[in-house]
Structure formats: C-alpha cells, structure tokens
Specification:
Layout: H1 7-16, H2 22-26, E1 32-33, H3 34-42, H4 44-52, H5 61-81, H6 88-102, H7 120-138, E2 156-167, E3 175-185, E4 188-195, H8 201-206, H9 208-217, E5 221-228, E6 237-244, H10 247-266
Parallel strand pairs: 1-3, 4-5
Antiparallel strand pairs: 2-3, 3-4, 5-6
Helix pairs in contact: 3-4, 5-6, 5-7, 6-7, 9-10
Length: 295
C-alpha cells in the first residue's frame, strides 16, 4: 500500500515528476506533498515564490533543531526495529551531528524572555534535552506530561517511511502525492513534532497531514507526538495525542488537495490575509519582495 522510494528517487521526482497525466505536467515538481499543500493554503504567493520561482528559504534555528531531533528519533526507531536500541548518548550524537553542521548557516529565530536571540549553545542544549526525553519515552521509561500515566514504548515497524502514490479525489484527475511518515507501528501511524507550546487535541483531530497519511496507508488510528521545549518554569515535556480518521475526514482532506492542485495548475496564487501572524517581516522570508516591497 505504501510505495517506498530511496533518496535518489526523491531527488529525481523533485526535478522531473513522473508520468504523463495532467498534474504530473502542471505541478512545479510534478507532485504535491503535505508541506506544499500547507504552504499553498497558508499563502499562495509564498508558494509561488518557493516552488515556482524556486526562491529558497534560508534555514533557521527552528528547522535545524527539528531536523536534528527527527534524525535522532529515526536512528532510535531503526535500531529498535533491528533489535538493539541505541543508547541515549548515541542518540544525542546523531542530534549533535545535524546541529553542529547546520546551525552555522542558520538564522537564529528563537528568543529569550527579553526578546534577544538565543545562542547556538543554548539552542543545542535544548535540542539535546528533547532528544534525551524522547529516548526515555520511546523505550517506555517515561510518563505523559499531561496525564501522568506511563507512556507505552514505541514498537516501530517502519521509520521515516517515504511513499509515492496517486490520490484521486472526487471529480478530479489523479494527483501524484508524496510524503514521509515519521513512525509506523502495528495499527497506527504518528507524526513527531518539536513545539514551543503544546498543541490541543483539535490539532491532532484536524491535521490534514494525518488525514492524508491515514488515507494513503488505510490506517485510521493516527497520533500526534509532541516534544515541547523547556521554559524557565517548566522542563521539556512529551505529549501523545491520539485521533481516529473516518472516511468523511479523509475525503475532506482529498478535496483540499484537489483544490490546491487545480489552483496551482491554473496559475492562481492568492496572497494571504495580512492579519495572519506569518505575514510579517520576521516570519515570512518573502515579505520584503511582497507586502514590504517599496512601490
């Protein structure tokens, strides 16, 4: 049900797409992904600049920290599948390798209570703490920060699993779609996120990413796993939020994908509502060439 592909194939599809159907030709990369759908629904103009004009987004400290934690979690999951879980120290080393390589090129977005940028060392320490927290969680030696109940150990059957399929919403041509599932367990799938503030149940219930992954895999039981960053008053936390997708929700997600594909193919790239928090110079890398452009 999930067509896995390796990194070379991912690079290839990003350059050329595949097949000869309508959307393989009309979409900038020949396919859609969750990140593309989310970017387009957030701001069509930002999507155009990133995927059509290929104006790359500078890396920032949030991205570096997230990639580092995900790489460390992937290595832990794979080692569990292999029957010999890596140690906490080994997991931290995987995080550190990503952080040390990428932070030197990244814009520091995270700030302290006074609004001053955090140092790379403080950001790394935060990521290390999140990594160690997840090691305890994954091996079943920690508790849910919200309920206080023991968290069952993860039992992965796949980690960072790439899929490439064609989804067919109602009244739509097939749409090439690609994604990466963080963790697949027997009967459930989950997405791991590092967050500054804990998300509510509604984020898991309404996640279009989890809806699409449930549709592709045929697994209705989905989960949002959150590593919440430490603050001055609270330590790092882990929250596991479960949800179930029915056909109504997955079909709605497919309708969103179809509308995004149709708009992109038609060359419609609507700007976001300027009241949205991301439409600011601080958070949008294209702001100076768009809303902030001198007339």
């Amino acid at each position: 049900m999930i067509d896995t592909i390796d990194n070379e194939e991912i690079k290839g599809i990003e350059k050329t797409g595949e097949g000869d159907d309508l959307y393989s030709r009309a979409l900038p990369r020949g396919y859609l992904s969750v990140s593309q759908v989310m970017q387009y629904t957030k701001c069509g103009e930002a999507y155009r600049r990133r995927y059509v004009l290929e104006q790359l987004i500078p890396s920032n400290s949030f991205m570096v920290q997230g990639r580092g934690v995900h790489k460390a979690a992937e290595e832990l999951h794979l080692s569990i599948i292999g029957g010999s879980p890596i140690s906490s120290a080994e997991m931290v080393q995987h995080y550190s390798d990503v952080h040390d390589t990428e932070i030197v090129y990244a814009e520091i977005k995270e700030e302290d209570s006074k609004g001053d940028p955090l140092t790379p060392g403080v950001i790394k320490d935060m990521g290390v703490r999140l990594t160690r927290k997840y090691h305890r969680v994954a091996l079943g030696s920690d508790k849910d920060s919200k309920t206080g109940q023991p968290i069952p150990a993860v039992k992965p059957v796949a980690a960072e699993q790439v899929f490439r399929v064609k989804v067919t919403p109602e009244n739509s041509d097939p749409i090439p779609f690609m994604g990466v599932i963080d963790l697949v367990e027997e009967g459930s799938i989950s997405d791991l996120k590092t967050k500054k503030k804990a998300a509510s149940q509604s984020e898991a219930d309404n996640s279009i990413q989890l809806s699409l992954y449930a549709h592709v895999t045929g697994i209705p039981h989905v989960r949002l796993d959150q590593l919440v960053k430490p603050t001055k008053t609270m330590p790092e936390r882990f929250l596991r939020t479960e949800s179930i997708r029915d056909k109504r929700e997955t079909m709605h997600a497919l309708d969103v994908v179809a509308e995004v594909a149709q708009d992109i193919a038609s060359g419609r790239f609507r700007r976001t509502n300027p009241e949205n928090w991301w439409c600011t110079e601080k958070w949008c890398p294209y702001w100076k060439d768009c809303r902030g452009r001198k007339r």
